[in-house]
User: What shape does this take?
Amino acid sequence: QMELVESGGGSVQAGGSLRLSCVGSAYTISRYCMGWFRQAPGKEREGVAAINSAGQTNYADSVKDRFTISKDNTRGILYLQMNSLKPEDTAMYYCGAANLKPITLRRRDYTYWGQGTQVTVSS
Assistant: This one.
C-alpha cells in the first residue's frame, strides 16, 4: 500500500513562513506527479502546487510567488515552502500522488493521499 506522511504544519501569524514535508518512497516521489492540496472548513479540496517527474512545477494563482514546491528524489521527500502566509491560507494541507508524468493540479488525477497537516494563519 502507498503511504504518504505529512508534517510541518502549525500556527503562525500573517507574514510568517512554514515548510511542509511529505515522506513517501523514493520511487513514488521520483516517478509520480506529486502535489500539495488544501481544504478549509466548508470548502472543497483545492490544488496548491505540483511537481512532476521531470521537475516541472505549477501553482494555484492564490499562492504563486509565495509558495515553492520541491522534492528530494533520493530520500523520497516532497516539500512545500510557504512564505508570506495569509489568513486565507488556513487549511488542512495534504500531499498526493498522481500516476501521471504530465504536470497536473486536478484533484481527480490524484489517487494516493496522506493524512494531512494543519496550517493556521492568524492576522
Notes: The first strand starts at residue 5 and ends at 7. Residues 19 and 81 are 4 Å apart (CA to CA). The mean pLDDT is 96.
